[in-house]
Amino acid sequence: MMFQTIPSFEINFRSTSDGWRGKLAQNFTFSNVELLTKALAIYLIKDLNKNRILIGYDTRFMSEEFANFMAEIFSRHGINVSIINKPSPTPLLTFTTNKFNFPLGINITASHNPPFDNGIKIRMNYGGTPTKRVINQIENYIAKEFHASKKKSKGVIQRLNPLRSYISQIKDLLDFNKICILNKRVLVDTMHGTTMGILSSIFKNTGIKISYLHENLDPYFGGINPEPKFETTKELQDMVKNKKYNLGIAHDGDGDRIIAVHPSYGYLSPHDVSEILLWYLAKYKRMKGNVLGSSTLGRRIKRLCTHLGIEYEEIPVGFKNATEKLLKGEILIAAEENGGVGFGFYLPERDATLAAAKLIEAEMTVDGGLKKILSEIERIAGKSGFCRFNYKPVGNRLRVFQKIVSSKENQFAYKKINNISNLDGIKITYEDGDWLSIRFSGTEDVLRIYCESDSREEAVKIKDFAISQIQKLEK
């Protein structure tokens, strides 16, 4: 085999923490995907010395076609390809990559992005995201052409159905002793994504009835981005608040993010979900380990860690920053503001299905359920309301962001400032514990604004103030 340099061609995908994303027909095209596929083939053969790969795809327009297209290219390079036989959550692809010892797994997905985006996520054999070094190495091969030996035969392409193994694995991590005797109802909003039917299979033959919302395949995702948050889950919130269900769950398009809804509390943000899971695992299950939280995660989980005597470490946004630490052990839970949750007793990957299953377990096995857990959290860590907003600058996004980061201290002094951190963008913590964070999105052409206060209403006020100050900097 040999590698021949060809004229450089800029695919112009946006690199993310675990792959690449772009817009259909604009830069996520068959010709660009072919270049990236060849680069992946070189990396697989040259760096990993392997000739097999796993491919999954989500429910987006053309995702399956891109998966088949990539499979043909890999096959021509002598690589054996297994394609998951239906639209698959990224956590399922991750599990399968690890369980069946694939050197690489790739999922054709743009996760929570707008309907006409698409992308490629990579998962490594250890069951987690790649390092930046791996991404860079693959990108270095984009300007090279691979020529396999003429004697090399084409790789085999086959279909794989790993769902039963995945469901069995999740069930092994649950406590069914009390679950089986209950008669409870849970509503799951798949947001037209890949998690349809999985939770109902996990809790089959128990006293829990799982119903679904937006489970039909719709590449337009009902006209919204498939991102579970307050603004996109109003229907789920209304149905649970009407006391028809004991719990509501929503996942994003590729099943690695989660929010919840409780009939007594209403919308439960990713912050609330991570707090519930930590409190349940540490207090009620008596599990040990430290906690990782993204820089934009809510304040209450830190307060709970202090109360529990658990070490808490704040890390930059992007689950890749948690993966390496999870691999080393001693971590109980790793949580992100966007709804990504990973567990130290599982793979170093965020898995919204496992998080949902643990939430259901907590609701069904703790006397008083999530209502009791949330009251305990509030008594120890106070109240919390959260707001997240995607702001699209009028001018150059990077230039505006640089102005924000280098602005004077009083630029965002909504109230008296206690601390300013530049771990990831800028985060201003006020003396009363409220905070504001502004960071540069790695997956969309926006600036992300995050605010926390005692109530969502007050958090929205901080957000509105931040926008007014950004607009001043834009002028």
Number of domains: 3
Strand order of the largest sheet: 2-3-7-6-4-5-9
Uncertain regions: pLDDT < 50 for 5+ in a row? 1-10
Find the structural class using helix and strand composition.
alpha/beta
The whole-angstrom Rg is 22 Å
Overall mean pLDDT stands at 92
Query: At the third CATH level, what is the topology name of the largest domain?
Result: Alpha-D-Glucose-1,6-Bisphosphate, Chain A, domain 3
Roughly how many Å apart are the termini?
56 Å
**Biggest sheet overview:** 7 strands, mixed
The count of DSSP E runs of length 2 or more, i.e. the number of strands, is 23
Number of helices: 14
Q: Would you identify the CATH H-level superfamily of the largest domain?
A: Alpha-D-Glucose-1,6-Bisphosphate, subunit A, domain 3
Q: CATH top level of the largest domain?
A: Alpha Beta
Beta-sheet strand percentage? Answer: 15-25%
> Quaternary status of these chains?
single chain
What is the global morphology? globular
What does the secondary structure layout of this molecule look like, with pairings?
Blueprint: E1 2-5, E2 14-16, E3 19-23, H1 30-47, E4 52-57, H2 63-76, E5 80-84, H3 90-99, E6 104-108, E7 117-124, H4 132-140, E8 144-147, E9 157-160, H5 163-172, E10 184-189, H6 198-202, E11 208-213, H7 234-241, E12 247-251, E13 258-262, E14 266-268, H8 270-284, E15 290-294, H9 300-308, E16 312-315, H10 320-328, E17 331-335, E18 341-343, H11 352-365, H12 369-381, E19 385-391, H13 397-405, E20 417-421, E21 426-430, E22 435-440, E23 447-453, H14 456-474
Parallel strand pairs: 4-5, 4-6, 5-9, 10-11, 10-12, 15-16, 15-17
Antiparallel strand pairs: 1-8, 2-3, 3-7, 6-7, 12-13, 13-14, 17-18, 19-23, 20-21, 21-22, 22-23
Helix pairs in contact: 1-2, 1-4, 8-9, 8-11, 8-12, 9-12
